[in-house]
Design a protein that fits this description.
- It is a multi-pass membrane protein.
- The chain has 3 domains: about 210 residues, no CATH class; about 160 residues, Rossmann fold, CATH 3.40.50; about 80 residues, no CATH class.
- It is about 55% helix and about 10% strand.
- It contains 23 helices and 12 strands.
- The radius of gyration is 28 Å and the shape is elongated.
- The structure holds adenosine-5'-triphosphate.
- Adenosine-5'-triphosphate (ATP) binds next to strand 4 and helix 14.
Length: about 600
């Protein structure tokens, strides 16, 4: 019989609790203590690098910040470590926020470089400051005690380390399985998609960065009171790289990968430190060379790290992670005021977009009324996608204005536009392939829910989550994909993936649905299925703007069509009028055939 995941976790907790009581040699208790400390830091990297896609070489510096804060305050000011932990975390949060403000808006390699710079500068500050004892560090850090019970021995301290490590793991697992967690996971799916769902990607990058820093700082706090002394070397840049190595080796995409990586590196390091000097002769940090080679091999042959192998081996005993369907009867998510049929919904007024000398969109105007399906068509390079991006806030207007439900939205961010009730799909499907179809669609409900990180970690968000999943399932049923909700989105063919995007957009409860070339690349059957879904949505009163290249596809679906060519509006009319227009024929035949 399969155990449930929570039973498995309880078994792990019981084992951890029993371990120091068993006649396990002191050496192994010490090893496990360090593994716990390292795992806490790597856990932060799983969140930051594995889940959010942001690389940091500077985690050891945050460990140092936590360690030095408690070492200094407990030795110089005789403060209790139970107080210094809050001060250490506070200083870490402020530092991380400042660093995040400087670097996280930048793209590309700035963050990793900034974390290297930060790691180096903190290391040299620690090494050169008189009051921190320079290279000798701070000696005589007191052992901890709790309610008069001393935690001076490795065996008793083991409990504290592993309580923090396992609680951190639980907190991160719960976070990842929540509204905020899905937003963090969406960072890797591309900023454009997340922002179009109303997610502030900057906010969640900062969040991941700060949470990873807090975990590192907590590890430093524990480390200082285990070692009873601190000096700069364990917080150097090389250690920051080692933490990253642990996370990558263990499996940077999974919480338990952090523990796997910490254990493998710690155990391997000890063995190699003894073995290699004997083999090679003479002393030296030869293990670093071996680690370098191992890392290259792992990145080449097992880029997901070791954890997926362990998971596969244990698949027979490990329970499936499929979400239990527990949302029947969940309270529905709030809905926006819907426009009345015929109400002027979108009014595009002479919008213009120039890229240098190229006028990609040349004073184009059209409007959409509630309940209508409008097609925007034109040959390749006509300016359809650019017009679409001007409406959805991805591009700024050079001139002109866009009004949505009577309010100016021109130049607003795509997040703000999503909030007002326009929801879109993408020409090239944007989704999170390792999340299920249901979770991907639930991302659309982001703006209709509000529970935050703490609520997720304490599981106070379950009612809202049930509401979100009920809504996601409803939207999937609506487009005929209910049966596929537990599939991994990455396994979908293009047709169903496009439909999933429509369900995600519907999950935002839009007043206007914008579809960017939904039929592109689809096979005939898939096109038919898509057309059926769109007809049904229209019958339900949904307003849709359909940007399409394929003229036949839009003919039977739309109420009106705007045809663009060379950035300008060529013709606007009913499908019949457009079909019979000699200008349109010339544009299509002239450019396509
Ligand atoms: N970011 C950009 N920088 C410079 N030129 C651009 C940019 N985006 C689009 N263009 C140009 O603007 C024109 C219109 O492009 P757009 O992608 O809007 O056309 P389209 O009608 O959507 O074509 P397709 O069917 O191929 O997607 C093209 O000439 C294109 O090369």
């Amino acid at each position: 019989m399969l155990m449930t995941r929570s039973r498995l976790f309880i078994a792990l907790v019981v084992l951890t609790a029993l371990l120091p009581q068993l006649p396990v040699p002191e050496f192994w208790i010490t090893q496990l203590n360090y593994i716990g400390l390292y795992a806490i830091v790597s856990l932060g990297l799983v969140l930051l690098t594995g889940v959010s896609g942001l690389t940091s070489f500077g985690q050891a510096a945050f460990v140092g910040l936590g360690a030095y804060t408690t070492a200094y305050l407990t030795t110089q000011w005789a403060m209790s470590p139970w107080l210094t932990v809050f001060i250490g975390v506070g200083i870490t949060v402020i530092t991380a926020l400042v660093l995040a403000a400087i670097t996280l808006r930048m793209s590309g390699h700035y963050l990793p470089l900034a974390t290297i710079a930060w790691a180096l500068s903190l290391y040299y500050s620690m090494s050169n400051m008189e009051f921190l004892g320079k290279y000798d560090g701070i000696l005589g850090v007191p052992a901890m005690s709790l309610f008069g019970f001393s935690l001076a021995s490795g065996r008793s301290y083991f409990y504290l380390i592993w309580i923090v490590a396992l609680l951190s793991a639980v907190a991160v697992i719960r976070l990842l399985d929540s509204r905020s967690g899905r937003a963090i996971r969406a960072l890797k799916g591309g900023v454009t998609m997340a922002e179009a769902m109303g997610i502030s990607t900057y906010r969640y990058k900062v969040l991941a960065f700060v949470l990873a820093a807090i975990l590192a700082s907590l590890s430093g706090w524990l480390f200082a009171h285990l070692q009873r002394t601190v000096n700069p070397s364990p917080f150097a840049l090389s250690k920051g790289i080692e933490y990253l190595f642990m996370a990558v080796l263990g499996g940077i995409g999974n919480v338990w990968g952090a523990f796997t990586g910490a254990a493998v590196v710690k155990l391997l390091e000890d063995q190699l430190q003894v073995l290699l000097p004997r083999l090679i002769g003479g002393s030296g940090n030869y293990e670093i060379i071996v680690f370098g080679i191992v890392l290259v091999v792992v990145l080449k042959y097992a880029p997901q790290g070791l954890w997926p192998f362990i998971e596969r081996l244990g698949a027979r005993w490990l329970p499936s992670s499929q979400r239990v369907r527990d949302w029947d009867g969940a309270a529905p998510l709030p809905e926006r005021d819907k426009p009345q049929p015929g109400e002027l919904l979108l009014d595009v007024q002479a919008v213009r977009k120039q890229f240098g000398g190229l006028v990609a969109v040349n004073d184009v105007s059209f409007s959409i009324r509630a309940g209508e399906i409008m097609g925007l068509i034109g040959p390749n390079g006509a300016g359809k996608s650019t017009t679409f991006n001007l409406i959805t806030g991805v591009l700024g207007l050079t001139r002109g204005e866009v009004l949505f439900r009577g309010q100016k939205v021109g130049g607003h961010s795509s997040r703000e536009i999503a909030r007002r009730g326009m929801s879109r799909t993408f020409q090239h499907v944007k989704m999170l392939p390792d999340m299920t179809v249901l979770e991907n669609v639930a991302l659309g409900g982001y703006l209709r829910s509000k529970k935050g990180v703490l609520a997720a970690m304490l599981r106070l968000d379950r009612d809202e989550e049930r509401g979100l999943f009920a809504e996601a399932e409803r939207q999937l049923q609506r487009i005929g994909m209910g049966a596929q909700m537990h599939e991994l989105a990455g396994n979908l063919a293009l047709g169903p993936a496009r439909l999933m995007e429509i369900a995600r957009a519907l999950c935002t409860d839009p007043a206007l649905l914008l579809l960017d070339e939904p039929a592109a690349g689809l096979r005939h059957k898939e096109k038919q299925a898509l057309a059926e879904v769109l007809k049904q949505l229209k019958a339900e009163g949904m307003s849709i703007l359909l940007v399409e290249h394929d003229m036949d596809f839009v003919m039977n679906l739309t109420d009106r069509i705007v045809v663009m060519e060379f950035g300008t509006k060529l013709v606007e009319g009913t499908p019949l009028e457009v079909q019979e227009s000699p200008q349109v024929r010339a544009a299509y035949l002239g450019t396509e055939h």
